[in-house]
Amino acid sequence: MARDGSNDGAAxxxxxxxxxxxxxxxxxxxxxxxxxxxxxxxxxKNLQDERETKHxxxxxxxxxxxxxxxxxxxxxxxxxxxxxxxLGVFHLASPVILQPDRDPETEVVEPxxxxxxxxxxxxxxxxxxxxxxxxxxxxxxPNPNWPADKxxxxxxxxDVDLIKKHELWYNVSKTLAEKAAWDFAAKAGLDxxxxxxxxxxGPTLTPSVTLSxxxxxxxxxxQSFDMDAFFIGSVDVRDVAESLIVxxxxxxxxxxxxxxxxxxxxxxxxxxxxxxxxELPVQRIQExxxxxxxxxxxxxxxxxxxxxRFTPFEKTIRDTMDCFKSKxxxxxxxxxxxxxxxx
Length: 343
Ligand SMILES: NC(=O)c1ccc[n+]([C@@H]2O[C@H](COP(=O)([O-])OP(=O)(O)OC[C@H]3O[C@@H](n4cnc5c(N)ncnc54)[C@H](OP(=O)(O)O)[C@@H]3O)[C@@H](O)[C@H]2O)c1
Known about the structure:
InterPro entries: Epimerase_deHydtase (IPR001509), NAD(P)-bd_dom_sf (IPR036291), NAD(P)_dehydrat-like (IPR050425). With 343 residues, the protein is α/β, with parallel strands linked by helices.
């Protein structure tokens, strides 16, 4: 399928709801849905905040086919109006916070799983035909029981006790939310399908960069991050948006879907970045602690079989860099001066 939807014969159109459509992934999804003829109900946390609304209202088709709703994941009554009348729901809204300021339970974990249940319940009550939910690679690893010689696939679940012990609260939130969603869908007889993206990169339509791009920016500026327990690769945001629509439009798509270009280790990732941008102070990892992860090309077999084609890593990184430069976040600096500048 072409990304612009020009070469696709699948049934499409109708009203769908996107939760969290103001965010990094959400705004690409809303853009693609509008392009493909859908009418979209999109939830934002604060309708009065132009940083959440303006980039969406500027999208082609938004004037006639996009309606924004204010929604708080923990307020069930605020969820239903956006879903009412929709044929399908794309559930993306969830706190993307790695280091909570105060209480991880109330800031990150509860809004994720209780919010997912509020959305699924509303979808069931409103007679929605399919819910596509965004989970994460962090709901798949670390899994100490996974065979050391086997490529990670959709059968792997993160060990909740282990990620709690390591205080990986975002990972806990995604794992519990996905588990709660599967449990609810089975009991309620709701058609649910799940996408598990790896680390999402690429250009953003939002006015500021959200967490996943912020982390990349810091790595490009020389900071190091400990992601050894859960990093299995990266994926282009435009491929994530396309995959979500593919899952919605294909009734044969069932279960979880790992979404990434290739399974790689953090050491490969930083080496590739450093090779692409030798003028930047990217820290090469000296000790590879990810011997639990088998490298693989094209591990997202379920999505590939559904027609998804993944953007090569180098293009994603170059497009992300162009986006950073256009926002003035990385400047065109001479090779000799750059190390002094990024301190
Ligand atoms: N980026 C990645 O690397 C990655 C990888 C795997 C999975 N995911 C998942 O993909 C989804 C979107 O992530 P993203 O990267 O696009 O992050 P993002 O830009 O921060 O988007 C998150 C969205 O959720 C909304 N949200 C958060 N808490 C909410 C609440 N309590 N009530 C209502 N809305 C709430 C946010 O609204 P505001 O903008 O108003 O805060 C925002 O629209 C999330 O479920 C995330 O876990 C992301």
